[in-house]
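Record 1 of the preview.
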Amino acid sequence: MIREVLLAEFDHELAVTRRMLERCPPVFAWAPHPRSFTLGGLATHLARLPHWGEWILNKDSYDLVRDNAPHAPAYTSVAEVLSVFDRHVSTVRALLVGKSDGELAAPWALRRDGSLLMTLPRLSAFKTFVVNHAIHHRGQLSVYLRLQDVSVPAIYGPSADEGA
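->
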């Protein structure tokens, strides 16, 4: 039962996120502020973010120092962003389908260089670091789109650009 609820939320939120990514204009170097992501950096982060689900669903913990691979440069096209996003979403969804409620309730830990930062049920870690994290950055992307005068898609109901 837990898996089915999580799958429904994952499918909905990541589909909305994909619609936002599809609308990214080709100004990937643009940023709204010097301390903000560039549009390309934000789109890249959103494309790679579902990959966290693989680590959460396949491992009992993740170490921010020991497990962290060097980041590749930001993507330079919407096609590249969508390709990576779709691949990660598909892989993570397949892993989630294969998990039992017991596996989703098992503890998962976040560490930094061996030191424990937090322990959560795997379900909570997945919602926090994959679903909620995507929602957070998708909200940022909606502002970026608005500032670039791009039509913002409906998220939880009609947007100002897409009425009823």
